[in-house]
Design a protein that fits this description.
This protein is mainly α. Helices cover 60% and strands 0% of the residues. It contains 15 helices and no strands. The longest helix is centred in the first third of the chain and has 32 residues. It is globular, with a radius of gyration of 22 Å. It starts with a helix and ends in a 72-residue tail after the last helix. The C terminus is likely disordered.
Length: 420
């Protein structure tokens, strides 16, 4: 439910779904180290904002940090098999498709009511939701869809539905007018193609390039004026990237004065003379939470992605898609407190790929086995990413996206992770 709601109604999910998720988490017997470590981020955000807790902006930001941590952990504990990954990711795609259809319909209403047909200034979006957030969530849906197709976590009969949804996402993103999301979709498509031909080169370019860009662009080393050349590919053009170049310079100067603890969560729009956010995840974290808060945030995201990337080539492909998709969003938007981002990160941090042992053979655990040493009952399994029953026949990964049927089990036995 959280995955399907996050693209459409993020505020509802944040304020109400997080409390329900907290009740669910209290019934979990066992949490992993990352599930516990993620709460260091909202703890630091609360401590760094202790003097401003009663201010509306700070109070809302603190609640958001706690809510994001809860949603992240809930997404992780809900994933125990590849079937769960396909199910939750499919729910996110369904919610995104609904949001895309609403965006397209809203665009048509705006064209008929306000502007002449084809007016370039229209920016469609959902009621009560920022158009940028909608575009970023749909760009993430494109990455999730490409990852599902690449990893073969869905049966073949569902592939056509995913392929049909991708152009709908793309058209809705175009109608929002969000340039960062349009760049993200282009990078995702490019990475999906290159990673099939040269997976190692694509992964290194994505990981190293993202790390370098997240340093040189927010710090100003690359040069803000050089970014203006990217506008030649879009219809929306101005001299400040919609005010970003001006607010970025102000954010850098403010961070130098409050470099360790920051000015407090949610306080940048209050301190900014323009009354807007920094439109950069890195600058927002540095200014509001300081160096410590930024390092905690980076540690959580890096841990989630590194664990998946190390699991297999499938994991690296999934992480690479998310990296190149989220990179332009991190550089030019607000994504630090996005329910869609934290839910997807939690789900895909549990991806475990299928490693091949020569042509025609796949290790036991192909399909929807149990992940990371956990069975359906929550007890450690004999091996990570493998069902309780070993496969009794050889299966070709190209012709059987579903696992082979296990041998009959006793009536009182529970087969972990065996689903058709």
């Amino acid at each position: 439910m959280a995955a399907a709601t996050s693209p459409v109604a993020p505020n509802t999910l944040l304020w109400h779904g997080a409390w329900l998720a907290t009740v669910v988490l209290l019934r979990i017997d066992r949490l992993r180290p990352l599930d516990i470590a993620v709460f260091a981020l909202p703890l630091w955000a609360t401590a760094a904002s202790i003097d401003n807790l009663r201010l509306p902006h700070t109070e809302a930001a603190i609640r958001s940090y706690w809510g994001m941590a809860v949603l992240f952990v809930l997404a992780r504990v809900a994933i125990r098999s590849r079937f769960d990954i396909a199910l939750v990711s499919g729910a996110y795609l369904a919610g995104s498709l609904y949001a895309a259809v609403l965006t397209i319909r809203r665009s048509e209403e705006l064209r008929q009511e306000v502007y002449q047909l084809g007016a370039p200034a229209i920016r469609a979006g959902l009621n009560g939701v920022n158009p940028n957030y909608t575009a970023y969530a749909l760009a993430t849906a494109v990455a999730v869809g490409l990852a599902l197709l690449s990893l073969r976590y869905l049966p073949r009969r569902w592939h056509l539905m995913v392929w049909a949804a991708l152009p709908v996402f793309g058209w809705a993103i175009f109608l929002t007018g969000t340039r960062g999301a349009q760049v993200a979709v282009g990078l995702a498509a490019m990475y999906a193609a290159v990673s099939r031909l040269a997976p190692t080169v694509a992964w290194r370019a994505a990981s190293i390039g993202s790390a370098v860009a997240l340093i040189v662009v927010p710090s100003g080393v690359y040069g803000d004026e050089r970014l203006l050349s990217l506008q030649s590919f879009f219809t929306r053009q101005d001299d400040t990237l919609s005010g970003r170049l001006v607010v970025w310079e102000f954010a850098r100067s403010m961070w130098q004065d409050h470099w360790f603890t920051g000015i407090g969560a949610g306080m940048f729009p209050v301190a900014d003379p323009f009354g807007i956010g920094a439109h950069s995840v890195v600058l927002t974290l540095f200014v509001e939470l300081g160096v410590m808060g930024t390092l905690l945030y980076a540690a959580v995201w890096c841990s989630a992605m590194v664990n998946t990337a190390r699991s297999s080539s499938d994991g690296r492909r999934a992480v690479g898609l998310l990296l190149v998709t989220w990179l332009p969003i991190w550089l030019s938007g607000h994504w630090e407190l996005s329910p869609a981002a934290w839910v997807v990160l939690g789900v895909w941090s549990r991806v475990q790929g299928r490693e091949r042992r020569g042509a025609g053979r796949v290790r036991d655990g192909q399909g929807f086995g149990t992940l990371s040493g956990h069975s359906r009952g929550g007890l450690p399994s004999s091996s990570a990413c493998s069902p309780s029953w070993p496969s009794t026949r050889r299966t070709s990964s190209a012709n059987a996206p579903w696992p082979a049927s296990p041998p009959p089990a006793p009536a009182d036995a529970t087969v972990a992770g065996s689903r058709r």
